[in-house]
Design goal:
Blueprint lengths: L4 H14 L7 H23 L4 H11 L4 H8 L3 H15 L4 H10 L12 H5 L3
């Protein structure tokens, strides 16, 4: 879903004005409008590719410094399954690494409080 060109141009001009660029040239407006449109597209992709409950739990525990082995024990799966979840997280959020995925997850609401994303075994284990 593409952002309407007029709206992207409007946002670009508003952003440039906030940066105290009173008379932006057309190249500046076009470049920023393209960036604004791309952000809109990225946001839509992120929301279209929701993480599963287990993937969100894995991302939550990774964000809190847990290793794959520790995450596996917490959520009650094999470490290889945690590695698979991490690959799926990177694919779904279109991220290069887990650090980026944590940032994207927080920004787009995929990384909630652990009570809403962690498996029952995690709460039973006292984590």
């Amino acid at each position: 879903m593409n952002m309407m060109p007029d709206f992207a141009n409007y946002l670009a001009i508003e952003i440039l004005e906030c940066l105290d660029i009173d008379t932006p040239n057309q190249d500046q407006i076009s470049l920023l409008a393209k960036l604004v449109s791309n952000v809109s597209i990225k946001t839509q992709i992120v929301f279209d590719q929701q993480l599963s409950r287990r993937e969100r739990g894995c991302l939550y525990w990774a964000a809190n410094g847990k290793t794959s082995g520790e995450i596996a024990k917490i959520i009650g799966v094999k470490p290889s399954t945690v590695h698979w979840y991490k690959r799926e997280i990177l694919r779904k959020l279109d991220c290069a690494n887990l650090t980026e995925a944590v940032f994207v997850g927080m920004r787009y609401g995929q990384l909630n409080q652990h009570g809403s994303v962690v498996c029952k075994r995690a709460s039973e284990s006292g984590q």
